[in-house]
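Bumping my old thread because nobody answered last time. Still need a sequence for this structure:
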């Protein structure tokens, strides 16, 4: 007997997601764009005075040692976490079930757990011109000293709320509302045409 399987979730980018190289290649492809499709995206918030306990819970569940304070973060290539406001964190994992795992250790006395897995789309931009392209959208200093690897920021572009984490020296993961993902993706592709980009 064949086991029933869940269908592959549809991407909101599907009609505009065109694999291949695009734009100006005079100097080669300088941007790589992709949708990462993590299995879990969770937002955690600590009640005032409970931040240390929440950070400890993050380490228990993910194994990631998070620096204290808003904006600090870490990524190991499979799991990522970053603070985006005092006592508030976004956690992503390639595997499903992260919200359930946090619900077991983050008690109502510590804070809240919100599963955003079906409400957010994760877009990755990488390459030597990633900072330059993102600076077209957001009034943020994307230079490495101001925005170190692992760190995260919460911002918006034309009312499209975005959370951004730097996951390597020339790579950023951007989390946007699923309903705005397609329009943001189109804008990101358009902004990357000038330097040549590849969709993977």
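Sorry it took so long. Here it is:
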């Amino acid at each position: 007997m064949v086991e029933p399987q869940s269908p592959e979730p549809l991407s909101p980018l599907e009609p505009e997601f065109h694999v291949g190289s695009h734009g100006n290649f005079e100097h080669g492809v300088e941007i790589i764009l992709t949708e990462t499709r993590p299995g879990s995206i969770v937002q955690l918030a600590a009640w005032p005075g409970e931040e240390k306990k929440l950070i400890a819970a993050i380490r228990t569940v993910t194994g990631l040692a998070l620096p204290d304070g808003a904006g600090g973060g870490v990524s190991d290539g499979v799991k990522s976490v970053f603070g985006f406001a005092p006592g508030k964190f976004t956690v992503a994992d390639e595997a499903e079930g992260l919200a359930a795992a946090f619900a077991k250790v983050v008690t109502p006395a510590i804070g809240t757990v919100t599963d955003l897995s079906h409400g957010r789309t994760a877009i990755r931009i990488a390459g030597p011109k990633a900072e330059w392209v993102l600076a077209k959208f957001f009034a943020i200093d994307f230079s490495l000293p101001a925005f170190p690897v692992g760190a995260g920021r919460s911002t918006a572009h034309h009312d499209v709320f975005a959370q951004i984490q730097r996951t390597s020296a020339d790579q950023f993961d951007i989390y946007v509302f699923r309903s705005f993902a397609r329009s943001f993706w189109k804008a990101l592709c358009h902004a990357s045409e000038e330097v040549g980009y590849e969709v993977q």
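The chain has a mean pLDDT of 91. Let me know if any region looks off to you.
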